[in-house]
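Title: Comparing notes on inverse folding

I've been comparing how different people in this forum approach sequence design from structure. To keep things fair, I'm posting one structure and asking everyone to reply with a full sequence. Here's the target:
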């Protein structure tokens, strides 16, 4: 069960071009559009073209955003730009044409991803923030917020009604099992997280937050701060995964960086160094390149290289040739989609958890990989009508095993033996 727009767009273009080419090009076009959107937002805030261009360049270099979108068919490549396009239209919503643009973008986002609720929660917090700071929300802002809230609740209740009845409140976490949620947050490293969002945007963003909370008031900044607060709350409560939270945080800080630069430039103009404004921006750019851009790109490149699945693909292509259509392959939760795509066979579990008992499946999967005797694994695989068992280096590391103790026997003969991938067939 998933909202289909992003997948249908890719499917449409795959009618004319290779699926692999489309999977590499279209998501990257969507992801790259963020640069233009950030430029528009920052120019709206600062009315300075040079700073807007500089900030847009910096936003294009957020390592975590690059690593999550450049080498994968990720829904983030569409939902992240849509979020900030909505933000831009909302900031300019007093003009009637931008109201229409907002509604069109809202409709596309609505049928693309439930992450729209992040933006709507930010709209609500913005109204509260504005009222507290003495800015009366306009009639348009109030009405569009109420409309967006009730439209999204109505739509998602209808679309996810079967999942809601099955999972109850767990649907908030997309029925992700606790084991997986804990793994998303298990390796949090402060230094690594700073690299993932960028050192310079982090420092500048914190300064701007302090400046506009305690020193000066600016209504448009409060919406960006509201989005940041909502992201922080959702991360703390583990309602969204860490990588998504870091992507949003990095982009929000990049926008605030533009405001930071305009504050600094405005201050310099009041001093005897006003004629050196352009040199300041150049020095700042060079400083960013050497402290954030180059290290960040290297980090993102390493993350992409780590995800090379070539050996798994070769094994799964072999499996496709010897197996029957409809056969089911037991494999890691993170290999589920790869199994389905590369072998054209059903997977035991993947990262879509709605409408299944994901906790039970993960428990059964652990039993299959860690059992000392073959009786229980055979029983489990028969329960799910599974035919093959995929063992990878990542599986061995995750379950802390060096081999399957009951494998290579009469019931589980080895049919593919690679250096990092092995495939066993169930014969009993």
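Reply #1:
Here's my take.
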């Amino acid at each position: 069960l998933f909202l289909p727009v992003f997948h249908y767009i890719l499917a449409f273009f795959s009618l004319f071009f290779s699926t692999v080419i489309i999977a590499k090009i279209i998501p990257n076009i969507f992801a790259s559009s963020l640069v233009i959107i950030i430029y528009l937002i920052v120019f709206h805030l600062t009315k300075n073209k040079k700073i807007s261009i500089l900030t847009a360049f910096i936003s294009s270099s957020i390592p975590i955003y690059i690593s999550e979108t450049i080498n994968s068919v990720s829904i983030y490549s569409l939902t992240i730009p849509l979020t900030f396009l909505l933000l831009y239209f909302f900031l300019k919503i007093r003009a009637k044409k931008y109201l229409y643009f907002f509604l069109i973008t809202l409709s596309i986002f609505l049928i693309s991803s439930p992450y729209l609720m992040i933006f709507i929660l930010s709209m609500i917090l913005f109204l509260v923030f504005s009222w507290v700071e003495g800015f009366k929300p306009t009639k348009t802002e109030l009405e569009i917020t109420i409309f967006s809230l009730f439209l999204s609740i109505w739509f998602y209740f209808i679309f996810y009604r079967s999942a809601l009845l099955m999972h109850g409140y767990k649907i908030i976490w997309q029925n992700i099992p606790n084991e997986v949620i804990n793994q998303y947050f298990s390796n949090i490293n402060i230094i690594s997280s700073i690299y993932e969002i960028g050192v310079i945007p982090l420092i500048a963003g914190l300064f701007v937050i302090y400046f506009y909370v305690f020193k000066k008031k600016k209504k448009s900044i409060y919406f960006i701060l509201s989005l940041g607060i909502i992201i922080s709350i959702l991360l703390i409560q583990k309602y969204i995964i860490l990588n998504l939270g870091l992507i949003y945080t990095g982009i929000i800080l990049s926008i605030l960086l533009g405001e930071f630069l305009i504050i600094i430039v405005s201050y310099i103009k009041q001093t005897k160094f006003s004629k050196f404004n352009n040199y300041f921006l150049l020095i700042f750019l060079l400083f960013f390149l050497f402290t954030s851009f180059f290290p960040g790109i290297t980090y993102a490149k390493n993350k992409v290289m780590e995800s090379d699945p070539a050996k798994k693909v070769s094994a799964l292509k072999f499996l496709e040739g010897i197996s029957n259509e409809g056969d089911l392959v037991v494999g890691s939760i993170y290999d589920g989609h790869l199994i389905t795509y590369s072998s054209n066979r059903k997977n035991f579990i993947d990262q879509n958890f709605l409408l299944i008992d994901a906790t039970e499946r993960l428990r059964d999967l652990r039993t299959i990989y860690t059992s000392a005797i073959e009786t229980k694994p055979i029983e489990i695989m028969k329960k799910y009508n599974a035919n093959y068992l995929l063992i990878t280096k990542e599986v061995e590391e995750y379950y802390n095993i060096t081999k399957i103790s009951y494998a290579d026997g009469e019931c589980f003969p080895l049919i593919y033996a690679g250096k990092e991938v092995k495939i066993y067939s169930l014969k009993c």
